[in-house]
Amino acid sequence: MARKEKVGIVVSDKMVKTRIVAINDRITSKRYGKVITRTKRYAVHDSRFNTSIGDKVKITETYPFSKTKNWVVTGVLGK
Question: Exposure winner among 23, 31, 45, 78, fewest CB in 10 A?
Protein backbone atom coordinates (compact mmCIF):
# COMPACT_ATOMS: atom_id res chain seq x y z
CA MET A 1 0.00 0.00 0.00
CA ALA A 2 1.28 3.45 -0.93
CA ARG A 3 2.05 5.99 1.78
CA LYS A 4 -0.29 8.97 1.93
CA GLU A 5 1.16 12.44 1.44
CA LYS A 6 -0.49 15.76 2.23
CA VAL A 7 0.45 19.44 2.10
CA GLY A 8 -0.56 21.81 4.88
CA ILE A 9 0.39 24.74 7.08
CA VAL A 10 1.98 24.55 10.54
CA VAL A 11 -0.41 26.11 13.09
CA SER A 12 1.35 25.15 16.35
CA ASP A 13 4.95 24.45 17.35
CA LYS A 14 4.67 24.46 21.16
CA MET A 15 5.46 20.77 21.72
CA VAL A 16 8.91 19.17 21.57
CA LYS A 17 9.49 17.36 18.23
CA THR A 18 5.80 17.72 17.37
CA ARG A 19 4.01 20.18 15.12
CA ILE A 20 0.30 20.59 14.45
CA VAL A 21 -0.41 20.87 10.72
CA ALA A 22 -3.76 22.04 9.32
CA ILE A 23 -4.93 20.57 6.01
CA ASN A 24 -7.72 22.41 4.15
CA ASP A 25 -9.90 20.32 1.82
CA ARG A 26 -12.49 21.85 -0.49
CA ILE A 27 -15.44 19.56 -1.10
CA THR A 28 -18.82 19.96 -2.76
CA SER A 29 -21.95 19.59 -0.63
CA LYS A 30 -24.05 16.66 -1.82
CA ARG A 31 -27.32 18.38 -0.95
CA TYR A 32 -26.75 21.98 -1.98
CA GLY A 33 -23.82 21.82 -4.41
CA LYS A 34 -21.94 24.55 -2.54
CA VAL A 35 -18.18 24.37 -2.03
CA ILE A 36 -17.26 23.81 1.62
CA THR A 37 -13.81 24.17 3.16
CA ARG A 38 -13.01 21.55 5.80
CA THR A 39 -9.96 21.76 8.04
CA LYS A 40 -8.31 18.69 9.57
CA ARG A 41 -5.44 18.99 12.06
CA TYR A 42 -2.67 16.38 12.26
CA ALA A 43 0.00 15.87 14.91
CA VAL A 44 3.26 15.56 12.95
CA HIS A 45 6.73 14.42 14.03
CA ASP A 46 9.52 16.94 13.33
CA SER A 47 12.81 15.75 14.84
CA ARG A 48 15.00 18.43 13.21
CA PHE A 49 13.04 21.47 14.51
CA ASN A 50 13.25 23.11 11.08
CA THR A 51 9.62 24.33 10.95
CA SER A 52 7.77 27.18 12.61
CA ILE A 53 4.25 28.60 12.57
CA GLY A 54 3.10 29.57 9.09
CA ASP A 55 5.42 27.24 7.15
CA LYS A 56 3.96 25.21 4.28
CA VAL A 57 5.07 21.59 4.74
CA LYS A 58 4.68 18.20 3.10
CA ILE A 59 3.80 15.35 5.48
CA THR A 60 3.86 11.57 4.97
CA GLU A 61 2.06 8.83 6.85
CA THR A 62 4.36 6.51 8.83
CA TYR A 63 4.38 4.13 11.78
CA PRO A 64 2.84 5.46 15.02
CA PHE A 65 5.08 7.63 17.20
CA SER A 66 2.37 7.99 19.86
CA LYS A 67 -1.40 7.67 20.30
CA THR A 68 -2.20 10.55 17.95
CA LYS A 69 1.03 11.06 16.01
CA ASN A 70 1.59 8.91 12.91
CA TRP A 71 2.73 11.52 10.35
CA VAL A 72 6.22 12.89 9.73
CA VAL A 73 7.48 16.08 8.06
CA THR A 74 9.20 15.19 4.77
CA GLY A 75 9.86 18.66 3.44
CA VAL A 76 9.39 22.39 3.87
CA LEU A 77 7.80 23.93 0.78
CA GLY A 78 7.80 27.55 1.91
CA LYS A 79 8.50 29.79 4.88
Answer: 31
